[in-house]
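Here is one chain, start to finish.
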Amino acid sequence: MRYACPVLLCAVLSSSMAVAGGPGQGAEHWIASWAASPHRIITFIPNGPLTTPLDRQTIRQRVHLSVGGERVRVRVSNEFGSAPLIIGSASIALPAHEAAVEPSSVHRLTFGGAGSTVIPPGAPALSDPVDLSVPDAGDLVVSLYLPESTRIETMHATGEQTGYLSRPGDFTGTVDMPVAATTQSRLFLSEVDVASSAAQGVIAAFGDSITDGANSTSGTNHRWPDFLFARLHAAAHGAPTPAVVNEGISGNQLLRDLMGVSALARFDRDVLSVPGIQRVIVLIGINDIGTPGSRFGGAKPLLAASAEPTLATLIAGYRQLIARAHERGLLVLGATLTPCEGTANGYYTPQKERLRQAVNRWIRTSGAFDGVVDFDAATRDPHHPGRLLPADDSGDHLHPNDAGYRAMADAIDLSLLR
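Its structure:
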């Protein structure tokens, strides 16, 4: 028996893997198709996210998937909550219009077989799989009912997609939900996974507001990761395509916690633990450079000017991300930092511009990354390289508009992602 048991165990594990579906030929396996990195609620942004508790309401949120699949599951997060998050019921469906869904597509979600769940503070919860076929680049609607007064502590501020809040009541199974309020933030919902026998892995776009799609047109899915998936899908000519998930957080920094925990702190959760992850594009650092000493709306600086990093500290942070990704066998592309001259309230200074240029030289020439995506070259004004090209500027001189985000996606050499 001493020798038979390991053999039996191997047989059981082999059978289990065939059912669960590792990334073998013809095997169904799970990959992330959409994501919104969770973070603590941000209260100091003008016209920012909801801060009042939700009371016996249903949240209905529409997400734009990258790859499709035959089955779906969702991840709900209470990772920054100070109290248990009670989900009274939940559902997924295909969208119809605004807060309405297609009647025949409504499917109840369960968690460990139960129709409700309690998520402890600091934890996420993964739903049971649901048999629902969703297409590539399709939309999905997730509805969550909160049966008790619930503080919004875990969220994603920059959704660039309208979400709907009901009047009091469980409307997770309702086709046309009565709407009491709307939000542009993501609330508690952090990931949607799909199961597919043809899935080709996941590319994570990891960064700050420029990856998050800030100032893109709401509801149009015009962030650069959306445009990247559209390019990959078109180039595949019907063949399976890698998924692209957006792991950007507006205001995020490489080295410091401010808007969301630092990129170094969240890299394991938002990249290394993503189901099916194979590649990551890193665009982070402009807020490390620009935020120290700057003021938002005339308020006092969020960080003292003395907190400005050095080139050496930024390089050390990038090398940590690269080393941790390589440890898991991931390919890592480094993206150059885009221009920001003209931004208000001290975010740009000539000294900060010199540091941005030094960072970009290192990204381009060090060989530390497995490849380089030159977003700076794609978006800068050739006559004034410290500024965004006027046609690509959303107006704040930091964030691209829809055309600028498309230009960023077009600048990526797709051969680096195959």
